[in-house]
UniProtKB/TrEMBL annotation:
<keyword id="KW-0547">Nucleotide-binding</keyword>
<comment type="similarity">
    <text>Belongs to the helicase family. UvrD subfamily.</text>
</comment>
<dbReference type="GO" id="GO:0004386">
    <property type="term" value="F:helicase activity"/>
</dbReference>
<keyword id="KW-0067">ATP-binding</keyword>
<keyword id="KW-0378">Hydrolase</keyword>
<protein>
    <recommendedName>
        <fullName>DNA 3'-5' helicase</fullName>
        <ecNumber>5.6.2.4</ecNumber>
    </recommendedName>
</protein>
<feature type="domain" description="UvrD-like helicase C-terminal">
    <location>
        <begin position="245"/>
        <end position="561"/>
    </location>
</feature>
<keyword id="KW-0413">Isomerase</keyword>
<keyword id="KW-0238">DNA-binding</keyword>
<feature type="domain" description="UvrD-like helicase ATP-binding">
    <location>
        <begin position="10"/>
        <end position="244"/>
    </location>
</feature>
<keyword id="KW-0347">Helicase</keyword>
<feature type="binding site">
    <location>
        <begin position="31"/>
        <end position="38"/>
    </location>
    <ligand>
        <name>ATP</name>
    </ligand>
</feature>
């Protein structure tokens, strides 16, 4: 037994190996943050194909984002070489698209069908008013489908057509789903149709990182996996390769009150008695909070002082100064509005920042107009046509108008740069190119090589890791988030706590949590108290940094008013 496939499984720990080499049948892998989910899933696929006579073309691996799919594909290529070519790896939407392409006629679509772009969708919405059925009809009359259709239409087809179900079950006998805690009703139904109750379905995920219920995800599907899929085998991964022991201890305590994983634990793979505690900074104001981030970045990366800062203090307890670069640092926050003060403070001091905001290509300014323009224009390679279209549009937008929404020529050129790699990747097929954009090709605004501090929302930080993490705005009303007059339900608070857990577990070596005593929110300056989520963490795990900084004269004045 030991020698079977040892080569492949060598790079896994004992439990990862159990998961990777488990026999067929339903398999649920409950795995906490930093326990190597992608590593385990890719090694399982490689192992089954290399050692268990599973054919790659019988395997379907599903992820939620294109970025995750691309990463999985790259790792499988590295592990399996040419064999990986026959695997189907994609997002739920791309799998849906594949099924729809193969059955367009049965779905009632004409030969020239395609995915509607934003303009076409908006037009149909406006014409249909509130009538969802009418909206779909309008699209269908033009042989258009929208993004939801990429899942609902294949589900409807399979539901009505047992022969089709049989066909796809024969085709994809092994199914692997990453981040299973995030499936929604339609994705779940698709999986139920594609996999028999005793099928070779392997789902991996962490219910405590379910943070997408606002988008329809339902962690309930994860929790009842072993009811849905007969005699499911359960494997847990608890060894964390990412974070220091104090960070992990704080994270586990933070999630404990409403953890969805019984006996939740995370064991640090590396234990270093020198690991610093979790830094906790009591800021007077948001400006003070931003200053703290700047000062600490300066201490960690070093070399800024001569440029713009008057602090020369080096914190000897931190990671050795000078060994870190800006890109090792992430600042995480609950709402995008919180990022401004930090961006301002860092930029003023000459610290480069990169922010991830819209990560869908089609949401970027300029992308839609270029896509439209491409339908009219030219010949030549797609890349050349993108450039042509950008030239035409940049000229058009060079003339100023009173339209506040109008694009600037720079937007068009930036969009053209973003579209180029996709144009090269899709070859010269315009239809594929436009479908990629419509189905949500992502631009990763975070360039891992860029020498800049990363700023991201907690949602955008999911799945990532950084040596140094600041989780700012750990305040009641932000974590958990509360709108004026709104009162979150218990379920919503539990989801906010999971978001907090996701944030804490992004950190490898050094984690700072900060909160400000006063913050400008919803149009006025408000007194803020620390997040109740912090109360779940043993105070002994925190190192309190600085004292509550006295309010600045300006702030004091505001307060008196
Ligand atoms: P998350 O839930 O946050 O997405 P994850 O389970 O996907 O976490 P990974 O990002 O896959 O975790 O792994 C975390 C880190 O641990 C990575 O840097 C990975 O290379 C490393 N790692 C995973 N397994 C091992 C192992 N057996 N030996 C050494 N390093 C490992
Ligand atoms: Mg992951």
């Amino acid at each position: 037994m030991e020698e079977v496939g040892t080569g492949l499984l060598d790079r896994l720990d004992a439990m990862q190996r159990v998961a990777a080499s488990a026999p067929g049948g339903p398999l649920l892998i409950v795995a906490g943050p930093g326990t190597g989910k992608t590593r385990t899933l890719t090694h399982r696929i490689a192992y089954l194909c290399a050692e268990m006579n599973v054919f790659p073309h019988r395997c379907l691996a599903i992820t939620f984002t294109r970025r995750a799919a691309e990463e999985m594909r790259a790792r499988l290529d590295a592990l399996m070489g040419d064999g990986a070519q026959d695997l189907t790896v994609g997002t739920f939407h791309s799998i849906g698209l594949t099924i729809l392409k193969e059955n367009a006629k049965a779905a009632g679509l004409g030969a020239g069908w395609r995915i509607a772009d934003d303009t076409e969708r908006t037009a149909a919405r406006e014409q249909a008013g509130d009538d969802d059925a009418a909206y779909i009809k309008l699209l269908r009359q033009q042989d258009l489908v929208d993004l939801d259709d990429l899942l609902t239409m294949p589900v409807a087809l399979l539901r009505d057509e047992p022969a089709l179900v049989d066909r796809y079950r024969r085709q994809w006998q092994w199914i692997f789903v990453d981040e299973y805690q995030d499936v929604d009703d339609t994705q779940y139904e698709l999986l139920r149709l594609l996999s028999p109750a005793d099928g070779n379905l392997c789902a991996i995920g962490d219910p405590d990182q379910a943070i997408y219920s606002f988008r329809g995800a339902d962690v309930g599907y994860f929790l009842r996996f072993n009811q849905d899929f007969a005699d499911a085998r359960l494997v847990r991964l608890t060894r964390n390769y990412r974070s220091s022991a104090p960070i992990l201890a704080a994270a586990v305590q933070a999630i404990a009150p409403t953890s969805l994983v019984s006996g939740r634990r995370l064991d640090p793979a590396r234990v270093n008695p020198e690991s610093p505690l979790v830094g906790r900074y009591f800021a007077g104001s948001t400006a003070d909070e931003a200053d703290f981030v700047l000062r600490t970045v300066d201490e960690l990366v070093g070399g800024l002082s001569h440029r713009s800062l008057d602090t020369g203090r080096i914190d000897s307890r931190a990671v050795a100064p000078g060994t870190l670069s800006f890109s090792d640092i992430a600042v995480l926050y609950r709402t995008d509005a919180q990022s401004q003060a930090v961006v301002d403070a860092l930029s003023r001091a000459g610290v480069p920042v990169q922010k991830r905001s819209h990560n869908r290509l089609r949401d970027r300014p300029g992308v839609q107009v270029i896509a439209q323009e491409l339908r009219n224009a030219g010949s030549g390679t797609l890349a050349a046509r993108v450039k042509q279209a950008a030239q035409v549009l940049a000229q058009r937008y060079a003339a100023p108008t009173l339209d506040a929404e109008q694009l600037a020529p720079e937007d068009v050129w930036t969009a053209a740069d973003l579209l180029m790699p996709l144009a090269r990747r899709t070859g010269d097929d315009l239809t594929d190119f436009l479908q990629e954009i419509a189905t949500g090709a992502e631009v990763d605004a975070l360039d891992p090589r860029a020498e800049a501090v990363n700023l991201l929302t907690l949602h955008a930080a999911k799945g990532l890791e950084f040596p140094i993490v600041f989780l700012i705005g750990c305040e009641d009303g932000l974590l958990p988030l509360r709108w004026p007059g709104g009162k979150p339900t218990d379920d919503e608070i539990a989801e906010e706590r999971r978001l907090f857990f996701v944030g804490l577990t992004r950190a490898q070596d050094r984690l700072y949590v900060t909160h400000a005593a006063r913050r400008f929110r919803h149009g006025s300056e408000r007194e803020q108290s620390p997040s109740p989520f912090l109360d779940a963490i043993d105070p002994g795990l925190f190192e309190r940094i600085g004292d509550a900084v006295p309010a600045r004269p300006k702030d004091r004045q505001l307060r008196l008013l």
